[in-house]
Amino acid sequence: MRSSATRPACRTRRRPGSPYTDHSTLPDHAVPNQASGDPSVDDPRPTPPVQPELEDCCNSGCSPCVFDLYDEALARYRVELAEWEARHAQREPHR
Fold first, then answer.
1. Closest to 65 (Cα-Cα) out of 7, 6, 1, 11
2. Looking at residue 47, what DSSP letter applies?
3. Are 19 and 27 in contact (CB under 8 A)?
4. Where is the Oxidoreductase-like domain (predicted)?
């Protein structure tokens, strides 16, 4: 286990209030919606991840970088959005 003295700079120099202050507090956008096929079930549209500000990156080359985490979250969001749109297209009444 690493001591706090060997922690990467990216975890110690974050802008206060940033959602990327600590990698462990990032929202997990990969949790699938639990749709039961019933249109009455609450199935909200997925929300896109918050893009980090330039100041959120410490520029020390850490891995993963906040921008890498954002890119991964954005890719998951796009998949979830496509799945959500497909579910809702099936639910629309046929005319």
1. 11
2. -
3. yes
4. 46-85
Report the distance separating Cα 5 and Cα 21, nearest Å.
18
Q: What is the pLDDT of residue 89?
A: 86
Burial 43-78 (b: 16+ CB within 10 A, else e): beebeebeebeeebbbeeebeebbeebbeebeebbe
8-state DSSP, 2: -
Please calculate the CA angle 54-70-20 and round it to the nearest 5 degrees: 60
User: Cα separation of 12 and 21, whole Å?
Assistant: 8
Q: Is the pLDDT of residue 24 over 80?
A: no
Contacts of 70 (CB under 8 A, 6+ apart): 20, 49, 51, 52
Pairwise CA distance, residues 24 & 59, whole Å: 19
